[in-house]
Inverse folding.
């Protein structure tokens, strides 16, 4: 007797996707002057809409609008700015289902994640920073803190709306105005957010959204009248941005790649550790900069942990992102799918043992089954390079010292996980691991009150929490 | 000390004979089981609770849930009339629909077994609570006499309670031996035995680590089922407690080859809740447990909600509570 779950699709009738979208500049949707590009549903490859590709001139217009708006917005009392942010937060909650469905359609992530993780965190971020807007003097970042000016923000496709919230909410709370460029493959929720800004009567020019690809992003970060650059994305692009702004007086924060170690000790709560390994690497199809992509498991329990992990992976449901029972959605783009395939093939060629869940992949769209590589060493490329997909590399260790050594032996340093029932070991590991976030007996937990950011090639600056304010205030060091 | 099981012990269990040889070795074993992280276990249970079971899957799950119900009345005010009515309902939960399956068992106090048996015969099992239910506070002789009485009266299943005081005091071997002795008391003159369910009263054990230890303790002692609660203590059955028990039976079968059943009891009142449990059985223990032989719901009001939902699935509309029998 098998319990077959019948399809339980969330209705997409709640969202109204227009055939084409312009840019959001100075409080209005305007046609772009440049070309346009298509955004597709990665689960079906169906074209969702034509979106304007902002030219340098469009970006210039947006920055000018932001500059004009900065005068009023920065002088407005914090209490007044907070009202707008609270209003935006409430509208996000009210329109949560719409945002979640649109996010899943454009990004490919399962509706249970966009509904239960992304959108609630987005609203929480706006609520959290709304609360700071009138308390900046008490943030411990100096007396009479002042906003920086116009922030140019470039965000990735893995958490389109959440990354928007992480950038926009603190910037606005501190009195800055923003020009935001969403990722090329996932512009739609940012454009719906623009509509929410209109609905909230946000003064024109405080938030400007320019869609486009790398060229548009470059125009945003290198515009001479942009005072602050915030970027989340690949380390490669992050380095290019750092070079572009070198020698200018722009302030920069970068949140880049990662190759996090998820460390399981032999005294770990095994079943929960297995769940944590799964959510660490398969959450959001592994399109997570802080994903626990390297499992470091103590050799004495490696066999047992792997057997349990494979059994658990067998229960993951891959398919239609809008089905409420889907655990693993679509890979965001063909380009990303190609990269995941390429690195996985290299892993196999280098001698690691590949195991994937046996599941049927839909015939159209971009899909990759949850995959585990065993017999991986620090010398394998899949243990060193960020795959940004549902691919886990398993390494073993013998002692806590070896675990620390291996965990830190990476150019990245964004996050890490520690699984043990021994409290003292958690504290010791947290002090030894060079990673911005160390999760203990959990993984991929995000809260607006908690700062997030990396060591080394994972970037600099912190987002979230009181520390996240520093990136948007003059003279405050992150 | 009589530690030999009355019926043929499974060969997989033999490897564990040393574990239960002394208080010290049993304690070492139970305390050596991997811990349960409370936050993680509760998050996993809540996550499974968001599964959306619709249309054909829901119809299938509702019928299965009805077949898994141990229809229960355990009140001081129970009378022969009351339990006879309940027994009739167990046979034909929905008199208006002959396709509606019977429940798994009727669960009553030992003195009322005969009344139920007279109505249900061999069509539905009769379960009796025993061993000084619900507190388990009596001498061993009394507990065993209680069990033998119920078996002699024709009970097919015995739901015993453990001595939580002994468990919490760390006297694990005492609890183990009580289960072994009760299992022996379940043996009928013809050599067959009444199925034994061991109730932990998880609301009193409090921690998930304790629930996991109690599960292994009872399974090593030869129980057929492990059961969460008496229904007399809050909280009774919860999803995370049942999750930990399902993990235990899954791991136990992997280690010994012996399959043990699980029965959450108390507090499960809606069809929606019951379906969440079935999803959890499916994804934690596996579909081998999706059968009344291996999973039960100890409940009373749950049945009517299952029936209402079942009728709604076939007619497309909800009927009022007066269309279902109140017994």
């Amino acid at each position: 007797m098998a319990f077959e779950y019948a399809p339980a699709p969330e209705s997409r009738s709640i969202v109204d996707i227009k055939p084409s979208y312009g840019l959001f500049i100075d409080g209005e949707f305007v046609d772009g002057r440049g070309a346009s590009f298509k955004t597709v549903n990665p689960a079906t490859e169906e074209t969702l809409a034509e979106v304007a590709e902002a030219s340098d001139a469009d970006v210039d217009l947006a920055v000018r609008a932001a500059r004009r708006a900065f005068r009023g917005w920065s002088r407005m009392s914090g209490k007044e700015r907070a009202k707008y942010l609270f209003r935006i937060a409430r509208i996000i909650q009210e329109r949560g289902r719409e945002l979640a469905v649109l996010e899943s359609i454009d990004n490919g992530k399962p509706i249970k994640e966009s509904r239960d993780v992304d959108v609630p965190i987005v609203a929480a971020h706006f609520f959290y920073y709304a609360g700071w807007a009138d308390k900046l003097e008490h943030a411990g970042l100096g007396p009479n803190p002042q906003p920086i000016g116009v922030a140019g923000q470039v965000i990735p496709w893995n958490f389109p709306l959440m990354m928007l919230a992480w950038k926009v909410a603190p910037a606005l709370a501190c009195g800055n105005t923003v020009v935001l460029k969403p990722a090329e493959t996932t512009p739609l929720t940012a454009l719906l957010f623009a509509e929410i800004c209109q609905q909230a009567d946000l003064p024109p020019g405080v938030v400007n959204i320019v869609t486009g690809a790398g060229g548009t992003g470059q125009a945003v970060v290198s515009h001479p009248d942009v005072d602050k650059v915030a970027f989340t994305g690949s380390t490669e692009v992050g380095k290019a941005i750092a070079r572009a702004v070198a020698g200018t007086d722009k302030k920069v924060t970068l949140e880049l790649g990662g190759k996090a170690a998820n460390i399981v000790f032999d005294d770990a709560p095994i079943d929960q550790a297995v769940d944590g390994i799964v959510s660490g690497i398969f959450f959001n199809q592994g399109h997570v900069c802080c994903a626990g992509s390297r499992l470091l498991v103590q050799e004495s329990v490696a066999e047992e942990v792997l057997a349990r992990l494979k059994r658990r992976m067998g229960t993951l449901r891959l398919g239609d992102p809008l089905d409420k029972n889907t655990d693993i959605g679509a890979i965001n783009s063909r380009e990303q799918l190609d990269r995941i395939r390429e690195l996985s093939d290299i892993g196999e060629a280098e001698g690691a043992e590949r195991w994937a869940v046996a599941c049927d992949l839909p015939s159209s769209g971009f899909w990759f089954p949850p995959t585990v590589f065993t017999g991986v060493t620090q010398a394998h490329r899949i243990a060193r390079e960020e795959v940004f997909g549902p691919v886990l590399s398993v390494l073993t260790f013998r002692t806590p010292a070896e675990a620390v050594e291996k965990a830190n032996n990476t150019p990245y340093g964004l996050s890490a996980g520690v699984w043990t029932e021994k409290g003292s070991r958690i504290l010791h590991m947290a002090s030894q691991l060079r990673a911005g976030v160390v999760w203990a007996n959990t993984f991929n937990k995000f809260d607006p009150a908690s700062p997030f950011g990396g060591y080394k090639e994972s970037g600099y600056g912190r987002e979230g929490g009181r520390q996240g304010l520093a990136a948007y205030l003059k003279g405050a060091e992150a | 000390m009589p530690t030999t099981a009355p019926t043929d012990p499974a060969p997989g269990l033999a490897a564990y004979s040393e574990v239960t040889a002394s208080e010290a070795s049993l304690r070492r074993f139970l305390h050596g089981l991997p811990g349960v992280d409370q936050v993680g276990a509760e998050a996993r249970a809540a996550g499974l609770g968001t599964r959306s079971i619709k249309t054909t899957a829901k119809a299938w799950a509702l019928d299965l849930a009805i077949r898994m119900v141990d229809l229960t009345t355990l009140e001081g005010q129970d009378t022969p009339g009351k339990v006879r009515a309940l027994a009739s309902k167990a046979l034909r939960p929905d008199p208006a629909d002959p396709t509606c399956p019977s429940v798994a068992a009727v669960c009553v106090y030992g003195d009322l077994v005969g009344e139920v048996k007279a109505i249900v015969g061999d069509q539905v099992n009769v379960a009796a609570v025993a061993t000084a239910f619900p507190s388990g506070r009596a001498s061993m002789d009394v507990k065993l006499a209680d069990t033998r009485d119920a078996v002699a009266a024709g009970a097919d299943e015995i739901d015993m309670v453990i001595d939580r005081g002994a468990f919490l005091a760390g006297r694990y071997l005492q609890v183990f031996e009580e289960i072994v002795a009760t299992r022996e008391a379940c043996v009928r003159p013809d050599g067959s035995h009444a199925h034994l369910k061991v109730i932990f009263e998880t609301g009193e054990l409090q921690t998930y680590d304790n629930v996991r230890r109690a599960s292994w303790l009872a399974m090593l002692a030869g129980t057929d089922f492990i059961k969460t609660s008496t229904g007399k203590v809050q909280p009774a059955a919860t999803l995370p407690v049942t999750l930990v028990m399902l993990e235990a039976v899954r791991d136990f079968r992997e280690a010994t080859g012996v399959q043990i059943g699980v029965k959450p009891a108390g507090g499960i009142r809606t069809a929606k809740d019951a379906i969440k449990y079935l999803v959890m059985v499916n994804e934690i223990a596996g579909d081998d447990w999706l059968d009344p032989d291996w999973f039960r719901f100890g409940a009373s009001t749950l049945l009517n909600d299952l029936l209402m939902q079942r009728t709604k699935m076939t007619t497309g509309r909800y009927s009022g509570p007066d269309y279902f029998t109140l017994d």
Observations:
- The CA atoms of residues 127 and 157 of chain B lie 4 Å apart.
